[in-house]
């Protein structure tokens, strides 16, 4: 939501991360506000983090810190797969993950499937540094339901990256085992699936079931950590489901010009703090903040 501080004649955007936690950023101007068939969309220019994309009141990215998320979503799997040629991105209509995927020389085809074409259009117009790979020769943009798309492309992809919004409304199914089985079917015989499973501090009640649902489908599930200043709590958890390979050790160097990911970051990100390991194993109770 946006509000005006009458004391200073300032406009602020506030995201409610949980019932007890909010994050506010001062807004210089509103770039666009619209409703798609699926969600509300805002692009704002903030004083601290540059341009910001907001869907249904939740921060999706800012220009200042988006690289932290998008590099960790893409490069961990792509650098630990022996030969990733075909990559599917589920969601990610802003194009940030796609931008990172096409950096890899081995990748021949990168398909972005997002059900909301208005998110794609908004990013093209207002976030050119994020959406810049949408016209890359390797890229295919498909504004449609990813579940439908995957059922028609079984066994096709080496890596599937699920760059979903928070697991509410239309995105809720993207964190459940039936969806993960569809992902399994669309992967090649040695494929990886990557997704984020939120924060252990604000979203443990989402994180733990999502991790458990992946373990119902994949023989090997690993978690790794990254930092995202404008996501709830700033501590973000990712998960990889693997059919065969161990994703914790990179097999190749990352592309040049990255700002967050390195091979050392890759290795270190798989080290889980004890409290998080206990949460994921069910040894520690999860208290919902909603």
TrEMBL record:
Binding-site positions, spermidine: 70, 94
Active site: 163
Recorded family membership: Belongs to the spermidine/spermine synthase family.
CDD domains the record matches: AdoMet_MTases
Protein purpose: Catalyzes the irreversible transfer of a propylamine group from the amino donor S-adenosylmethioninamine (decarboxy-AdoMet) to putrescine (1,4-diaminobutane) to yield spermidine.
Domain of life, source organism: Bacteria
Gene transcribed to yield this protein: speE
HAMAP family the UniProt entry points to: Spermidine_synth
A biological process from GO: spermidine biosynthetic process
Coiled-coil regions listed: none
Annotated S-methyl-5'-thioadenosine binding sites: 39, 114, 145-146
Subunit structure: Homodimer or homotetramer.
SUPFAM superfamilies named among the record's database cross-references: S-adenosyl-L-methionine-dependent methyltransferases
Protein name according to UniProt: Polyamine aminopropyltransferase
Catalytic activity: S-adenosyl 3-(methylsulfanyl)propylamine + putrescine = S-methyl-5'-thioadenosine + spermidine + H(+)
GO cellular component, one term: cytosol
NCBIfam families registered for this protein in UniProt: MFS_SpdSyn, PRK00811.1, speE
GO molecular function, one term: spermidine synthase activity
